[in-house]
Amino acid sequence: MIEILGLPAASTFADDIDRVFTIIFVAVGFWFLLAEGVFFWLIFRFKKKDGVKAQYITGELKSEKRWITVPHNIILLFDIVIVVAAVQVWYDVKQDLPEEPDKQVVRVIAQQWAWTFVHPGPDGKLDTPDDIAKVNEMHVQADRLHHFQLESKDVIHSFSVPVFRLKQDVIPGRVITGWFTPTKTGTYDIQCTEICGVGHALMPAKIVIQTAAEHAEWVAKNSSVAVASAALR
Amino acid sequence: MHSHRSLVIAAACVALAAFVPRAALAADNPRGAELFELCTQCHGAAGEGNPMALAPSIAALPEWYVLNQLNHFRTGARGTHPEDVGGLRMYPMAMTLKTDEDTKAVAAYVAGLPPVRQTQTLSGGDPARGAQLYAVCTQCHGPNGAGNPAMQSPPIAGQADWYLLSSLQKFKAGTRGTYPNAAIMRGMAGTLPDEQAMKDVIAHILTLNANTAANAAQ
Ligand SMILES: [Cu+2]
């Protein structure tokens, strides 16, 4: 449903999140419209009439209480529906950390007011001289599992990639690990979704998702630069 | 009671002294004053700087220098290195300056702010050794640290010591920026072998601050 509104779904779990979103939207939307309908019907049905005195209702009669208890039970029922629909998705996205032999680990460092993305070089490992650090620019490969490690240099930020339907707080002093597997190539937005100071709105970044060949080319080109400038130090 | 009142009067005088020139400045340059509101978040209402925000004192810096640096930030020639934490804070702020006119206006406003005396935060520097090390600096920054617009070298006397240290470290590490003077300063900062040498030369620059203040008072 979110895709119809114009935001592509570009991760393996994006469709699952969208399904939960649709269930919540339809369930809440249906009962919202019905409740508003009943509300306005009552207002017009029992509006002020000449010669009819307003009645004071205490809401203690069983027939009156039903207006509360019946909708309340329906809400509880739908809560269960939503929880059941969401719990497996939550587990898959947030609690499970899939492992694959060719997974890529990218370090994501938030600060006021920029993102630094540290990508492994051709050796596929972080914390080696061929690492590629980029400000406000994350490079990943389509159809490959990525683990991200979130760190903050100052305050709480939130790492949000709308096309992945991914959002995770970044907490100073902690390394928070999560995962995604991109399914589409292209360049998309990364945003900070936790108010982090006066420049909060000014820390947008880009995620560039490429095919394996394009990504390898990018890594080769940029890691040689990284190695050369490290040698200058 | 009496000392209380004189304290209040003294505080009011200080506040007024800081406020009056700013009011006049704002009347001359309303656009600059408006844009400066954002700067105050980190650099303070008087442009006095705030080490907690990694924001140096900018009040009374020469207009050409502020303009140059703002343009470096705007083009990404400064403040885009992953290890330049303070610069990365300034870079998005400078990006809010959409036109050259706005950049000039805020630079003029900052340059017009009265200088703010900086408190010493570093210790352990040897000014005598620093005076010797300072010899290479004099070519561009002058014997009094007053700077030289012809060489695009800013005044360094009067700047906060913590900012001088972090700048020397960034120049030396090559994280300050990609603009030409940053490359020159990388070579110059490279003549300082370690942090102690940097502290020594800064201790010498602090004595220049005192001289500058004394000169101004006379
Ligand atoms: Cu943020």
Q: Can you tell me about this structure?
A:
Chain A is an alpha+beta fold and 233 residues long. Chain A has helices at 14-45, 62-95, 212-232; strands at residues 104-111, 114-119, 132-135, 137-141, 146-152, 157-161, 166-170, 176-180, 186-192, 205-210. In chain A, 37% of the residues lie in helices and 25% in strands. In chain A, strands 3-2-1-5-8 form a five-stranded mixed beta sheet. In chain A, strands 4-10-9-6-7 form a five-stranded mixed beta sheet. In chain A, a hairpin with a 2-residue loop joins strand 1 (104-111) and strand 2. In chain A, helix 1 (14-45) packs antiparallel against helix 2. Chain A is elongated, with a radius of gyration of 25 Å. Chain A starts with 13 loop residues before the first helix and ends with a helix. Chain B is built from ten helices and no strands. Chain B is mainly α. Chain B folds into two domains: 23-114, Cytochrome Bc1 Complex, Chain D, domain 2 (Orthogonal Bundle); 125-212, Cytochrome c-like domain (Cytochrome Bc1 Complex, Chain D, domain 2, Orthogonal Bundle). The longest helix of chain B is centred in the first third of the chain and has 27 residues, at 2-28. Chain B starts with a helix and ends with a helix. Chains A and B meet through strand 2 and strand 3 of A and helix 2 and helix 4 of B. The complex binds copper (II) ion. Residues 110, 157, 192, 194, 196, 200, 203 of chain A line the site of copper (II) ion.
